[in-house]
Each structure stands twice: as C-alpha cells, then as structure tokens.
Amino acid sequence: MNLDKKIATRQSYGEELAKLGEENKDIVVLDADLTTATKTGIFAKKFPDRFINVGIAEQNLMGITAGLSTFGKIPYASTFAVFAAGRAYEQIRNSVAYPKLNVKICATHAGITVGEDGATHQMIEDLSLMRTLPNMTVISTSDDIQTKWAVREISKIDGPVYLRLCRMATPVIYSGIDSFEIGKGVQIGDGTDASIIATGVTVSEALKAQEILKENDINVRIIDMHTIKPIDRDLIVKCAKETKRIITVEDHSIIGGLGSAVCEVLSEDYPTKVERMGIPDCFGRSGKAEELMVYYKIDSKAIVNKVMEKH
Amino acid sequence: MKITNVEALKKIAIDVRKDIIEAVYSAKSGHPGGALSCADILTVLYFNQMNIDENKPNDPNRDRLVLSKGHSAPALYSVLAEKGYFDKELLKTFRKIGSDLQGHPDMKKVLGVDMTTGSLGQGLSAAVGMAIASKIDSAGCRVYCIVGDGEIEEGQIWEALTAASKNKLDNLCVILDNNNLQIDGEIEKVGGMNNLTEKFISFGFNVITVDGHNLDNLIDAFTSAKQTKGKPTIIIAKTVKGKGVSFMENQAGWHGKAPNEEEYNRAIEELNSFIVKN
Predict the structure, then answer these.
(1) Nearest C-alpha in A relative to B162
(2) B126–A66: do the CB atoms touch at under 8 Å?
(3) Structural domain contains residue A178
C-alpha cells in the first residue's frame, strides 16, 4: 500500500460537495465564517444562491439548517467540530436530532491534529457527544476516497448525520474501486495477533504500524471503523473471537468515543479486554499535528510499541 | 376557510382559552399564563391570516408557524383542535403518557405543528431557515414565529434577527408576546431587556406595536407586515399574562402551574360569562 499521496479530508469534502451540488439541487450549504478552512467556499463560489454564510453564529447555523430541511432542502452545515458539536450541541439536540430532521453536520478540524491552535480548538469530545444523540448517524472518515463516498452517501440518509473531518493532510488509503457501506467497518489484513480498530486520521497510522509489525513477524489486522454509529457490532465481535488482542486508536478522548463504543459492544456480546489509545482524560495543547500525534501516542510508532510490549 | 368577522374570531379565542384551561387542568401541569397571553395572536393567525388548509396539513406551499416559546403548547394545540387538525377530546391527554400532545410541541407527533420547539431561543432560527427556503424556491410562503419577551434574553434570538435582516426576509413575521413577566418576575428586573423598539429597528426590522388582545389591531398589523417589502417585520404585541382568567392575569406565579378544581371551575365560569356578555 502506497501511502505517500496526502490530502486532508476537509479538502475532499469541499470538492465532492461542489460536485454533488450540480447533481442534487436540494443541497444547500451553510457555514459560519470559515469557508476557506472548511472548504465550503468551493460550493459557495459555484452555487451562491444555495449557500448561506451565517457569520460567527453557530447556534443560529444549526437552527437555520433545521428550518431549511422542513422545506425538503438537504442542508450541509460546516464549521469547526468544537463549535458544531460543542457550542451548538443543544441546538443539534433539540432542533435537529429530536425532530429527526434531514441535516448533515460536516465538522472539520476535529481532534488534536488541529495542531497549533491548541486546546480551545481541538475537539476531542465530539464523537462522544454526537453518538449519544438518538437519531444521529456518526461518521469519521479516514481518507480522500472514503470522504468523497461519505459526502454522497449521507445525502441518501433521511435524518441527521454528523460527519467528522480533519484539518491535516493524511495519506490516501483507498482507490476508486473500493466500496464502503454505512455501519460496516473495513477490515484490512487478516492477522490474528491483534485487531487495531482505528477511525479518521489514525487509520493510516495503524496501516503504517501494520507494515512495521509484519517485518517483525507480528500479524495484525486493521479495522477502519468509519461509522461510529451505528457501530459494526458483528465485525467487532468477529475480531474479538479471531484475534488475541483488541486495541482501539483514535484522535479523540478515550472517554466516549470509538474505544468506548467498542467496549460497550464487547462487554455485552463477547467480554474481551480492550486497550484504548487516544487522548487520555486531558485537554490538548499547541504543536504541529504530527508532533501531537507522537505526544499523545496515537501515531504509528506508538501503535507498534503498544503491540510489541505484550507480544 | 378564513374567518373575517371579528366577533366570530373573538368567540373562537374564548373557546381556545377554555381549551387551554381544560388541557392544563387535565394534565395537572403546564403553562397557562403564557398560553393565554398568545391565544388571541394564534387565533387571528390560524383563522384569519395564514394560508393553510387543515385538510392538507402537509401542503408544501402552506404558511408556517413556529411557536418558539414552546411552553405555550396548550395554546397551539387548542387552536389546531378548534381548526380541526385533530379531535378536541385529545386535549385532555395533554402531557400524559401515551399521548402525542407532548409538554412542548413535537412536529413529528402532531399534524399542524410546523416545528419542534421548547428549548427557548431556538425556534426563530428555524423560522429564518424556513423563510430562506421559501425564497430559494419562490414558494411564496409566509413564516410566522412567536417569541416570548423572556425568551429574547437568549443570545441565539439576536443571531437569528441579524440573519433575518441580512437575508431581507420580508416573508418572515415575528410576533413578540410582550406580557412583561418571566418565571422569576418582571422582565426588566430579571433579565434587564429594555428599549425593545429601538433594538429591533437597529437590527433592521419593520417594527409594529399593537395591543396583542385587540383582534382588529392584530389583523391590521399582520396585513401591514405582508405589505412591507425588503425587510422582516416584528410585531410587538402588548399582552397580559394569563389574559381572560382574572386571577391569573399579570401573575408570574401562573407561568407554569395548573389550576386546582376550584380554580378550574372559576376559570371556565369566567370564560363562559365572557361569551354571554358579548
């Protein structure tokens, strides 16, 4: 697998959304003064009549999307994850999720990989907050190809979706012939020494770790868990049955996100020890994205070390 | 069918008030004060102003109403029941387990409810979204949104007002149920919101102030709003919390309290005598 070509999932989102806008005239895009960063500006330039910039007012952003959707529009609302899932949480809860409105919240700049902006802008609780909401589908894509698929696929779901996107450029993992399904994780490799369940930016790190481990005769499988809710219970249980260890890794707090979701499934269906890698119970800090992944031990080397320490 | 006879509208408004008391009494909980203060506004909208048909509740081109002050749900339910959206008997199930008439309006459970509301400050943003959608589609729908004067202490309201003005939403008409009371007392003392007319003008709105219980004045205000182009309208409706039931009038204590049996009987009696008098 060649992981040299890199593109940020927010870029893939912006490009595909502009294409989708040509085909689906119901799509309306909203942003809160971050069109350059979230890449909704590409759509805005092409379809100014179906683009609304609400300014720095995320609560209003979510409410307006709710109103638009009651008229049959399919609003895609973007801002940074901390302002979407965080600041406007209750608007999403009461005006979008509870009435099960057809709103797509596409939040960029999730996780500590936001980098230099530091803790105030590093959203590491969004998967936790969003997956606890009834009616909400939660997706966290790992690369360009998968993100472009997700941008289209979520328009077909009749209900609210939270799509988690990232700032940093990450390797292109898939090719155009790969296919995905909401609620179905992607298994890469069939090693039985461990299952590394990753999501978003940590998937390519896990894949790099898989290669390094292979050189040491340790065979792990990688699960790209792009759908956090509904989570792929069958695949998680299958991995627990077929592999010696279950390790989760995410650019998110270890509380409430992917690791917790995996624990919930296994504790109910097939009790198994789970090792969670992610941001421990603390806020992030400034630094380069790559440095922070090392600092918080969610990079390929940390994954290798985690597997090796008990092997 | 629109009712243009004001005397007939007044009778409906009394029935709506009786329905409100009935619903809150049956539930043994709810918010009679603010429901009674916006009863006349809702009656005029649903029976005289809005382009709606109870037989086509999902008509995409209908006018919309967002009751942003969702705790006044019994007023909305009562008007919808009087209009024929559902059986009036259902009002007695308000707030009870198994009923679709939730404590706050749920658009997915009740035909005729255009937006789920209840958490204060959120409905106006949804109304703005609706008005924008109607503009995109050139659908010609008007969107009405009733907000409380306590509710506008929420910052999101001012975000939404800004957006309404920026987008020149002349198809949006906001109605402020200005009864001067919130749970903890007088609006000016609790939240400190004041100079409303100046505030709304500075936010780019066409501002009309009316007696919110004078049906003629309300009809004139709504008509004037329809004729105003290029900017949204807000009608500051001067109202009385608990209007129509003497012992509930202007009492913050009746914000979220159900009447007991004796109070219920007195309230219904008063409202009935009002019908006889008129």
Answers:
(1) A54
(2) yes
(3) no
> In chain A, how many domains are there?
2
* In-domain check, residue B1: no
ipTM of predicted complex: 0.96
Query: Which residues of A are annotated as catalytic?
Result: 58
The residues in A 94-133 lying below 8 A from B, measured between CB atoms, are 94-95, 98-100
Angular region, A161: left φ>0, alpha ψ -120 to 50, beta rest: beta
For CA atoms B59, B64, B66, B67, the dihedral sign is negative
Q: For residue B128, what are its two tokens?
A: 């703005």
Instruction: Name the average pLDDT for chain B.
Output: 96
Whether A1 is in a domain gets the answer: no
Q: Is residue A176 part of a domain?
A: no
Q: Nearest CA to CA, how far is A104 from chain B (Å)?
A: 15
The predicted model scores a pTM of 0.97
Question: Residue A293: pLDDT above 90?
Answer: yes
Q: Report the residue from B60, B106, B126 with minimal CB separation from A67.
A: B126
Q: Does residue B146 form part of some domain?
A: yes
Answer whether residue A61 shows pLDDT above 60: yes
Mean pLDDT of chain A: 97
Compare CB distances from B119 to A49, A69, A94 and report the shortest one's residue: A94
The amino acid sitting at A250 is E
- Judge whether B57 is closer than 8 Å to chain A, CB to CB: no
**pLDDT tens-digit map of A151-186:** 999 999 999 999 999 999 999 999 988 999 999 999
**Residue A281 region by backbone torsions, left for phi larger than 0, else alpha for psi between -120 and 50, else beta:** beta
CATH of the domain at A41: 3.40.50.970
Q: B-contacting residues of A 14-53, CB under 8 Å?
A: 28, 49-50, 52
Contact (CB, 8 A) for B272 and B278:
no
Instruction: Kindly state the average pLDDT of the residues A119-138.
Output: 98
